[in-house]
């Protein structure tokens, strides 16, 4: 007896009941006939019966096959046309903020720190009084040098008087010499006429020789007096120089801020002995400028070569030649790059160890949000303005070292295209090569889309997000440059030939 499975298409069960064998041999199994057959002929008969039953069952289900054999529908995918728009690529680097000017405040003279006059961590202006060294030894030195100057000036006056006296004596010797010469001449004339004696002539001749000797002595006194005058003048100059040094040291007792900026803490408190005037002078505090501020960053060799190529092709000017704009954001500023500045330095060579080149930007810091030492993200233009092709990253596939996208052709068949990628801009990925911008790029259903198969495409519209940086730029004109002009420091502001600085006021009292 053969029974079909009541579930129809799930399979076929065959039950064979043979009354010729004992009931112990009766079994109900699915085509398992090995234990119930006794002869090869009987087994063949059972197999034939089973095959006939299966064929009959299959014939009963044939009416349901056409529904499953229907042609499958093409896979569905989502496509979109790339965004094509003019942009500027902004290259991003990690930089560190540094002050334009950093000053270590040290004393130029040694002495006890009498007082300090600044609030730690606050802003100071150029020329503000910061500290005072004990002035009493310097004041005593000024008094001594002043006395030495008076003594030297008195000696100079005495030397000038001696010179005047020697000059007067020389004048008198000239008169005597002239008189002696005239007497000798007359006596000689009288002698020739035998109108005088030889003794008279000899006397006049001796007087003339004596007058010559007196003139020579007077001339020697003049020369000696002039030497004394020169020595006295030198002594006066030395005394004046010593007095100027003493007054300058008095100025050095007042330590003033050489630059404007933010001051650090007190490294030395009042009452301590500080050394000055050498490389190992005691460090009192430090000052860093705050506005404007520098940002240093390193660009790799590939970026450097790209900038050189763009500059040589006239596409993007080099930051060595112009002041290209720069935008900066701190670590906690995620909504764009709010700080503006420009490039003002590119190093002259690459670092041999890291193969990077150092660049520097200068930024305005009116709101004092930028602090030296902070890390920052820096963006500067990496291209000129051009029309870019943009697609989302989810449309890009990876095949080992290749990047590709799937596009849908006019015949609705998938086409695989290899692309070269650029950075992110306006929330989309820049495609440098591989797309021209009018293709239908597959965005969704890429797992079902294989090259060459026909698909059913659903169109989606891509929209570029708003970028925080502009899509165009120009080099910063000279009138907007932030780089300050170099000047003489406030603690060395007296160039050679300028009039002496006024005497500082003597400061007393405790620190502020």
TrEMBL record:
Places the protein is found: Cell envelope
Pfam families in the record: Beta-barrel_RND, BSH_RND, RND-MFP_C
Residue ranges occupied by any Multidrug resistance protein MdtA-like beta-barrel domain in the UniProt entry: 330-380
Protein origin, superkingdom: Bacteria
Coiled coil: 149-183
Official protein name in the record: Efflux pump periplasmic linker BepF
Family, similarity comment: Belongs to the membrane fusion protein (MFP) (TC 8.A.1) family.
UniProt GO BP: response to antibiotic
Entry keyword annotation includes Iron-sulfur: no
Residue ranges of domain Multidrug resistance protein MdtA-like C-terminal permuted SH3 in the record: 387-448
Origin species: Caulifigura coniformis
GO molecular function, one term: transmembrane transporter activity
Domain called Multidrug resistance protein MdtA-like barrel-sandwich hybrid: residue spans: 101-285
Parts of the chain that traverse the membrane: none
Entry GO CC: plasma membrane
Keyword hit for Coiled coil: yes
Annotated region described as Disordered, given as residue ranges: 491-512
Keywords from the named record: Coiled coil
């Amino acid at each position: 007896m053969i029974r079909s499975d009541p579930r129809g298409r799930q399979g076929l069960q065959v039950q064979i009941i043979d009354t010729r064998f004992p009931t112990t041999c009766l079994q109900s199994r699915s085509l398992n006939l090995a234990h119930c057959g006794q002869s090869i002929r009987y087994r063949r008969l059972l197999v034939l019966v089973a095959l006939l039953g299966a064929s009959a069952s299959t014939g009963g289900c044939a009416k349901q096959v056409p529904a499953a054999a229907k042609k499958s529908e093409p896979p569905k995918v989502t496509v979109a046309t790339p965004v094509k728009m003019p942009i500027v690529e902004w290259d991003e680097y990690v930089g560190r903020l540094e002050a334009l000017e950093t000053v270590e405040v040290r004393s130029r003279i040694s002495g006890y720190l009498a007082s300090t006059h600044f609030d730690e961590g606050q802003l100071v202006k150029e020329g503000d009084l910061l500290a005072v060294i004990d002035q009493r030894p310097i004041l005593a030195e000024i008094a001594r040098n002043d006395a030495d100057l008076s003594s030297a000036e008195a000696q100079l006056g005495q030397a000038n008087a001696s010179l005047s006296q020697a000059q007067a004596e020389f004048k008198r010797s000239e008169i005597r010499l002239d008189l002696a010469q005239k007497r000798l001449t007359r006596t000689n004339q009288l002698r020739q006429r035998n109108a005088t004696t030889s003794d008279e002539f000899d006397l006049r001749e001796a007087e003339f020789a004596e007058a010559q000797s007196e003139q020579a002595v007077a001339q020697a006194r003049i020369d000696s007096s002039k030497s004394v005058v020169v020595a006295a003048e030198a002594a006066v100059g030395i005394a004046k120089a010593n007095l100027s040094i003493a007054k300058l040291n008095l100025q050095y007792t007042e330590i003033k801020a050489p630059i404007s900026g933010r001051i650090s803490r007190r490294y030395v408190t009042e009452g301590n002995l500080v050394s000055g005037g050498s490389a190992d002078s005691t460090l009192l505090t430090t000052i860093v400028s705050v506005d404007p501020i520098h940002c240093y960053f390193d660009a790799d060799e590939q970026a450097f070569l790209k900038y050189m190529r763009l500059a040589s092709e006239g596409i993007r000017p080099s930051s060595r030649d112009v002041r290209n704009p720069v935008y900066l954001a701190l670590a906690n500023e995620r909504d764009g790059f709010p700080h503006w500045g420009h490039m003002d330095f590119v190093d002259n060579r690459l670092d041999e160890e890291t193969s990077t080149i150092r660049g520097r930007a200068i930024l305005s810091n009116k709101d004092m949000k930028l602090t030296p030492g902070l890390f920052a993200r820096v963006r500067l233009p990496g291209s000129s303005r051009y029309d870019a092709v943009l697609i989302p990253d989810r449309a890009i596939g990876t095949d080992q070292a290749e990047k590709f996208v799937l596009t849908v052709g006019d015949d609705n068949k998938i086409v695989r295209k290899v692309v070269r990628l650029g950075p992110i801009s306006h929330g989309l990925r820049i495609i440098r090569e591989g797309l021209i911008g009018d293709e239908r790029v597959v965005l969704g259903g890429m797992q079902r889309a294989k090259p060459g198969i026909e698909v059913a495409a659903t169109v989606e519209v891509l929209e570029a997000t708003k970028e925080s940086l502009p899509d165009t730029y120009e080099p910063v004109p000279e009138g907007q440059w932030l780089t300050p002009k170099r000047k003489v420091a406030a603690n060395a502001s007296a160039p050679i030939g300028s009039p002496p600085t006024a005497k500082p006021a003597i400061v007393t009292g405790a620190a502020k």
